[in-house]
Amino acid sequence: MRIGELARRTGVSERSLRYYETQGLLRAERTPGGHRDYPEAAVDRVVRIQELFAAGLHSSRIAQLLPCMRDADGGPSATATPRLVEDLTAERDRIDRMIADLVRSRDTLDEVIEAARER
């Protein structure tokens, strides 16, 4: 499929898809006319990349993790290693810390809002 169709099907801009390619996160064949041609599996790959970005991972970390993950379900592939488990556990712990910080911030805002309403 062409880049425009992949963008439409995933909700990701063409610019982002080109960036993913330059970062080694996504691969495309080239048509004789030089257009990118993505396989059907690229849809799952882009969704997985978006999920990892949303989790706060950087493109270099994503590039390390993607070869160890299946695109369709995000489970470990045959190349997954114990190091992958360590890395993913560290990322999960980082996300848990961020969530705790956000909850504290929200609680503080709730206190200020409540105090302002009482006045």
UniProtKB/TrEMBL annotation:
Sorted UniProt keywords: DNA-binding
Keyword Glycoprotein part of the UniProt annotation: no
Gene3D superfamilies associated with the record: 1.10.1660.10
Pfam families referenced in this protein's UniProt entry, alphabetically: MerR_1
Domain HTH merR-type: 1-68
PROSITE patterns membership: HTH_MERR_1 (PS00552), HTH_MERR_2 (PS50937)
UniProt-recorded Gene Ontology molecular function terms: DNA binding; DNA-binding transcription factor activity
Lineage top rank: taxon: Bacteria
Protein's name according to its UniProt entry: MerR family transcriptional regulator
Organism: Streptomyces curacoi
Lineage: Bacteria, Bacillati, Actinomycetota, Actinomycetes, Kitasatosporales
